[in-house]
Q: What sequence folds into this?
C-alpha cells in the first residue's frame, strides 16, 4: 500500500484550470475603499468621507490607465522620410508619475529617452512621451519601468541603439520607513550602440546635462 501511495504522489498531477482574474465591479471597488477607511479608524459614513470611495475609484482609473493601453499601437506609426537623418534623437525631461508596486504610493520624476534611428524610421516625438506614460500608469518599480520603455522602443522601432534614464523621488522612502526626503533614484539602460560604445554613453549624458 505504501508503495502505491508513493507512486501516486510522484506521478504528475493534473493542474486545476485557473481562470484569468475577473475585474471587480465599480461597486466592489468602492466597498473595498470603505473597508480601508474603517480600518484606519475613521467613519466612511461621515460627510467628509461619504463620497470618498467614488473619488478614489475614479482617481485609480486615471492612476492605472496604462493597463488599458497598448504600447504597440502608440509606436505603430513611424516616419521614414527624415532626409537622411541618422544621428541621435533625444527627448529629455519627460515628466512622469507612477505608483510603487510594493506600497502603492507614488514615485515621480523625469524620463530621458534617446535612440539612433534605423531604416525602420522615427517615431513622433509625442509618441515617446505617451509611451513613458503608458508604462508609468501601472504598478511599477523604477527598474522595471526603465526596462519596459527600452524594450518597447527596441521591439517596435528597431533602433541602432537606445538609452533611457529615469530620475525619480519615491514617497515610500520619504513618507514612511527611512523617511529620507529628497533622496533621488537614478536608473539607466543602454542597448545597441549605447551599450557597446562607452563614448556614446558619455555623449548621451553630456547632451542630457548640456546647458545646465
A:
Amino acid at each position: 500500500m505504501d508503495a502505491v501511495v508513493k507512486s501516486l504522489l510522484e506521478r504528475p498531477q493534473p493542474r486545476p484550470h485557473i481562470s484569468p482574474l475577473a475585474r471587480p465591479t465599480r461597486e466592489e471597488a468602492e466597498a473595498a475603499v470603505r473597508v480601508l477607511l474603517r480600518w484606519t479608524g475613521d467613519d466612511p459614513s461621515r460627510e467628509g468621507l461619504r463620497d470618498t470611495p467614488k473619488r478614489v475609484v475614479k482617481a485609480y482609473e486615471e492612476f492605472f490607465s496604462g493597463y488599458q493601453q497598448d504600447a504597440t499601437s502608440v509606436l505603430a506609426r513611424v516616419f521614414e522620410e527624415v532626409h537622411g537623418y541618422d544621428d541621435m534623437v533625444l527627448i529629455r525631461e519627460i515628466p512622469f508619475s507612477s505608483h510603487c508596486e510594493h506600497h502603492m504610493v507614488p514615485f515621480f520624476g523625469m524620463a530621458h529617452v534617446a535612440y539612433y534611428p534605423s531604416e525602420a524610421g522615427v517615431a513622433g516625438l509625442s509618441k515617446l512621451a505617451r509611451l513613458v506614460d503608458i508604462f508609468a500608469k501601472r504598478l511599477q518599480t523604477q527598474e522595471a519601468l526603465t526596462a519596459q520603455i527600452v524594450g518597447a522602443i527596441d521591439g517596435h522601432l528597431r533602433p541602432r541603439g537606445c538609452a533611457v534614464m529615469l530620475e525619480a523621488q519615491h514617497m515610500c522612502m520619504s513618507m514612511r520607513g527611512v523617511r529620507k526626503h529628497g533622496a533621488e533614484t537614478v536608473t539607466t539602460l543602454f542597448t545597441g550602440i549605447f551599450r557597446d560604445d562607452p563614448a556614446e554613453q558619455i555623449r548621451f549624458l553630456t547632451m542630457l546635462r548640456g546647458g545646465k
Notes: The mean pLDDT is 89. The chain has nine helices and seven strands.
